[in-house]
Amino acid sequence: MSCYRHVFRSAPAVALAEVQRWGRRNNVHKLTLLVQTYEKPCVKRTRIAEEKAYYPRWFYLRYATEVIRYSLKHHLRLGQGFDPNDDQRLDGLKPLRVPSTEERRQELAKMEGELASVQKQIVEMDVVSVITGARKSLASHPLHVSAADILAELEASQGRLLSLSAFLRRFYRPGNASSQSWSLSELRILHLRLARFVKLVLDIHATRELLALQDGRHARWGKSLSEEELGKLFDTKRVDLPS
Q: Which pTM does this prediction carry?
């Protein structure tokens, strides 16, 4: 049944009675049908159809607008021709070059050397001042923690480094004439070196996993049997059926 009921001027009572009967049958109050802000089912069907048709287009237009704003902000030359040496273009047009195994091995050796250097610099902070370069006297503060102990604690916690503010609150000990400990500048430098240490350890671990994966693939490919070897294996394992 249609959701629209026309009220004739000549017989309003009959029309209202018909609307009330339709409302009882469809569980809709008669005043609801007379309110103009009530969304009737036919209007609702039209609205849903419009949303299904136009909302995907609206979302696409919003996405295209964001792309254009990004290109204008970063000065991308989208209207020019394709240039393989152009760095200012989208990632989809310039895929990342996968490094070879030899390049990864060289990068791994470089990172391992840098890791040993950073670890040596962290341990030497207990002996040499990074601010003045002079040799330090032994810290006499009772709550002082050495750089070697901090590094060992970081390794025991599997690389979970505190934030700079929490790091300063934990290890900074205001010194006086009778006691010495870390200064704020030394702690900031120590935190930077510890963060670099964690980053190098993670990069080395990821590079070693990639190299192991590549070596495993090459090993499996190298261990595959040739056609002649497969033929010999088939002949030795073949069971002749009785004629």
A: 0.51
